[in-house]
Structures are given as structure tokens and as C-alpha cells.
Amino acid sequence: MFDLPLPIRPTTGALRVPPHFPSVDTDPNHAFALTLPRRSPADLLLGRGAPLVLARFATLAEAMQGAIDHVEGIAPDAAPQLLAILDRDERLVLAGPASNHAVAWCHPVTSAAEARGVVPEAIQLRAQAGGPAAWGEPDLARRLRHSADLLDARLVDPLWRAFAALALQVAA
User: Fold this and answer.
1) CA–CA distance from 58 to each of 27, 78, 94, 165 (Å)?
2) Which of 29, 35, 76, 152 could in theory staple to 51 by disulfide, Cβ–Cβ 3.0 to 4.6 A?
3) Which has the closest alpha carbon to 159: 1, 6, 9, 3?
């Protein structure tokens, strides 16, 4: 069950306009898409819950470099953004928070058993975020939702798990 592709669930919060790529390539034949999740409740209600594609790339290495190029255009005091690289079938390849001119790619789960442990933890964090939001502590609620998003970012598609882990080792 957990070996099926699981998308990163958006959380509430404002979506900042992404920096412009100098040569945005939107060729749908390219294998990898650098994306941002849709976070606006209005987008979700209007059926625009699919991730916002920033650019498309022919290789994973180019997509990772595109993520770094994207982050360099983000203001240093901006809230972290969750970037994701999806393949042409919209399977999660890599994801991680981007801020301070860097992307901290999350290490993918290694097995379905590990994924089964991550999913309930992310659900629990999102449930816990409801309390602080109701108590007037939006910062704590936002941090809890962000932590849940980071757990979801580890739910790389089984097809890409080993390759993504190897790509992170090579990039390090």
C-alpha cells in the first residue's frame, strides 16, 4: 500500500511568487519538473491543487542545479519553501526545504516499512497543529505543519528511492 506514489500534501499559508528562471524550459518531454506545492486554500478549493511547475529539466542533476538557481533568487528573510522534483509521471523523486540560498534535500525512506512509520507521524503532527492554531499561536502551528511536510518529503516513490539516495551521496 505504501509503495504507491504519495504526493506532498500542501499546508495552509501564503505562496510567494517564485523567482524567474532566466531560461525556463517548459518542454513536457523533459523528464524532471521542479515544483512548489500549492498552498493557498483558494487554489485548493478551485481544484488547482497540483504543484506549481517552476521549470522542467532533462536530467536529475540539472533539476537539482535548477533548484539551487531558484533558491539564490529567494530573499534571505523569506519563509522556507518546500521544493520537489517530480518525474514525468508526477512521482516524487526528491524534495526538501529551500531557504538561505540552499536546498536541504530530505533523505528518502528506504522501505515500505519505514514509510508506514513516517505517514502516521506526519498525520499526528498535522493534527497537533490544530491546537496551537485554535489557541492563537500560528507560529507553533506553522512549525508543526512544516515538520509534517518534511516527513512527507521523505516519501520518495519506490522507483526512485535508491537512485535519489545515491544522488544525494554524490551531491554531498
Assistant:
1) 9, 29, 15, 19
2) 35
3) 3
Helices (H), 82-172: 112-134, 138-153, 161-171
**Residues near 75 by beta carbon (within 8 Å), at least 6 away in sequence:** none
Domain ranges within the chain, ordered by starting residue: 32-107+157-171
Strand partners, 97: 82
- At 95, list the grid cell: 524534495
CA distance 59 to 63: 6
> Average of pLDDT values for 28-37?
87
3-state secondary structure 3-33: CCCCCCCCCCCCCCCCCCCCCCCCCCCCCEE
